[in-house]
Amino acid sequence: MSAAAITVVARWQPAPDALGEVLELCAQMRRQSLEEPGCLGYEAYQSLDEPRSVLLVERYRDEAALEAHKQSAHYRALVVERVLPLLAERKVDILRAHAPL
User: PANTHER family in the record, alphabetically (predicted)?
Assistant: First the structure.
């Protein structure tokens, strides 16, 4: 595993009538994720152009920190068990910064 910082960009499209619940769960997830030692940032955005679209931008110290996040009890309880069933669509990109050319 590389020691380079990792950014996760997740695009969520909640099912109709699920947006409010998904945003509340995002707020809970943010609070708990920022307590993880390897989490450098966690922000949720609601699209102005597509109000039912949610964008998450998460930053982790390295791949090990991201893996620890995905194994955490709060990730499993909030995202896996509660958010994922509320989503009509989901796309996740895991990114590492490219060194300048």
Answer: ABM DOMAIN-CONTAINING PROTEIN, QUINOL MONOOXYGENASE YGIN-RELATED
Question: Given strand 87-96, what is the order of strands in its sheet?
Answer: 39-46, 54-60, 6-14, 87-96
What CATH code is assigned to 6-96?
3.30.70.100
The whole model's pTM is what? 0.90
CA dist., res. 50 & res. 43, Å (int): 18
CB distance 78 to 28 below 8 Å: yes
Q: Could you tell me which residues are beta bridge partners of residue 55? A: 11, 45
Domain definitions of the chain by residue range: 6-96
Q: In this structure, are strands 87-96 and 54-60 parallel, antiparallel, or unpaired?
A: unpaired
CB 9 within 8 A of CB 96: no
Residues paired with 11 in a beta bridge: 55, 91
Cβ proximity of 80 and 63 under 8 Å: no
